[in-house]
Design goal:
Structural class: alpha/beta
Number of domains: 2
Radius of gyration: 21 Å
Number of helices: 12
Largest sheet: 9 strands, mixed
Helix content: 25-40%
Order of helices and strands: HHEEHEEHEHHEHHEHEHEEEEHH
Strand content: 5-15%
CATH architecture of the largest domain: 3-Layer(aba) Sandwich
Shape: globular
Amino acid sequence: MRRRTFIRAGLAGGIALLNARLWAAPADAKLLVVMLRGAYDGASLLVPYSSEFYYRSRPEIAVPRPGSGPDAAVALDSDYALNAAVKESLHAMYAAKQAVFVPFSGSDDVSRSHFQAQDLMELGQGAGGALDYSSGYRNRLVEVLSGKDSPRGVSFTNSLTPVFKGALPVPNISLRGNPKNALPPRQSEMIASLYQGTELASLATSGMETRKMVSEQLMNEMAESSRGAGAARAFEARARAIAKLMRDRSAYSIAFVDVGGWDTHVNQGSAQGALANNLAGLSRGLSAFAQEIGATWKSTVVVVLSEFGRTFRENGNRGTDHGHGNTLWVLGGGIAGGRITGRRVAVNESNLYQNRDTPVLNDYRSVLAHLFAGMYGLGDAALARVLPGANAGSYGIV
């Protein structure tokens, strides 16, 4: 990260507060949270292209620098760029000042367990101690806002997940999917053929059998981590349906949907491949959502987050493993968009968490508290009920 950008990032909290546009808090405000189950790789979406360490750490899967060819990332500033896979959708929203990115974000959970991290994030709790499953933060938000003509919640998930469990009844509309991640065809046969007829043939065969067993275990984990969430590739049709329901029914004002298939241990790809296809499908879906919801987009906020990020360095399978910090997105027609916000540090080896992951400098609960305060006028006491222990950050988004 260049020195001038680092200084700018260090002052981001105070400056953002001064520059933010005031949210009008309309009566028809809509909020959609999109949970990417499986832990997506934020460094392949918001690419730290000014970092030489990024390219050394990812010799096979780094997204090409801006200006380097047809798959090159699209520069946002002197340090960050967007994956070319989202050029026609997410980048267009960013250019229209309808998208904000918060890198170095996430929760304080360090278990690297999909299920524990997802539950913690949906419950809105801080890490440490037993999880309290009696209510999720979205149910508590609806409860705090309860009253005549107040916004109500809806979950577009396969089953009611912890985020909406609690005292108030919340309808659930299933959007079941069938995510799959496939290994490249004939990979095992090609490697085995290299050793055929040599003294190492039996060892190669044994090694490939072991690889197959481990790969199957990884594939099972990648499918399980999605918890029945629909695939990103088919998200556009579901996003349009969600937009129509939220647009036409005042009861569907605070919504939640999950999207699966983000656990990319194997053959992740860069500007093309499994992850890029997911990012493209998700981004097209969110762009379609914005179009379908129509004039209401001006009073709508969409938050995209994931339970944790990926390891900064690629693994031996051209993928990434369970990490920590990630990049959170906020979209909307009335936000102060077209920028990157939150606390940041230089992207280098010395700033990695446990010498492997992007650190968490922006608690996702702090971002949510900022949004809830701006959208709904919630004070400290109300925010403490919704997100206990969280403080609203000065992100200047709404």
